[in-house]
Design brief:
The complex is a heterodimer of chains A (about 110) and B (about 90). Chain A has about 110 residues and is an all-alpha fold. Chain A is built from three helices and no strands. Chain B contains three helices and no strands. Chain B starts with a helix and ends in an 8-residue tail after the last helix. Classes of the chains: A mainly alpha (about 110), B mainly alpha (about 90).
Chain lengths: ~110, ~90
């Protein structure tokens, strides 16, 4: 059982690492959001699941599972709200050749 | 095998990742990059608090702190994204 816990913690740390690299290296706001929004949710899920397995059957592990469920619902919601706010305040989208992707957009949405 | 030592190494690694994310919070262009930086650091702190509870053997206290931290992080992100909606960010 301990080895499953170690493996889940290492997988969670790997996903955190990948998300941080994408957060530092990607070119604009939306792609940074793409890197962090998914990999952080998955990293939290895996590492907290490993810690709940290590804690065994008790009230503590049930509370950790509650944290996992809460993060799995709220973290994509927060990501979506932040992205919608950035899109509505006209932050430009990055393309490789620098053309404007929002040209043919209907006014007022 | 001493698993608390392994937890300590994982916490140090996640702490280093928090410092890497802090670069975006300090230098990142525009307010929204700083906001995701704060949200990402909050999510990492959640895991870090539970790990700290196992290291100090006070998990029954630290897990409640972590639960409250998850709630606060969500509310902060939602409120800030509502507040900075049309304030004219340039990048």
């Amino acid at each position: 059982m301990e080895f499953v816990s170690i493996f889940l913690l290492l997988a969670g740390a790997f996903f955190y690492f990948a998300g941080t690299i994408g957060f530092l290296r990607l070119p604009d706001f939306y792609s940074r959001m793409h890197a962090t929004g998914k990999s952080d949710t998955l990293g939290t899920l895996l590492s907290l699941l490993g810690l709940a397995l290590y804690a065994g059957w008790s009230l503590t592990s049930i509370k950790i599972l509650f944290i996992v469920v809460f993060v799995f619902i709220t973290s994509p919601t927060a990501t979506h709200a932040l992205l919608r706010a950035a899109y509505d305040s006209k932050i430009p989208l990055w393309t490789k050749d620098g053309r404007d992707l929002r040209e043919g957009e209907v006014k007022g949405r | 095998m001493n698993l608390e030592r392994f937890f300590l190494f994982i916490s140090i690694f996640i702490g280093l990742l928090v410092f890497l994310c802090l670069y975006r919070v300090v230098f990142g262009p525009g307010i929204f990059n700083r906001l995701i930086g704060a949200s990402v650091i909050g999510t990492k702190t959640l895991t870090l608090l539970v790990l700290m509870g196992f290291i100090y053997k006070r998990i029954d206290m630290f897990v409640d702190i972590s639960l409250v931290y998850a709630l606060l992080n969500f509310i902060v992100t939602i409120a800030a994204s509502k507040y900075f909606l049309r304030k004219g960010a340039t990048r």
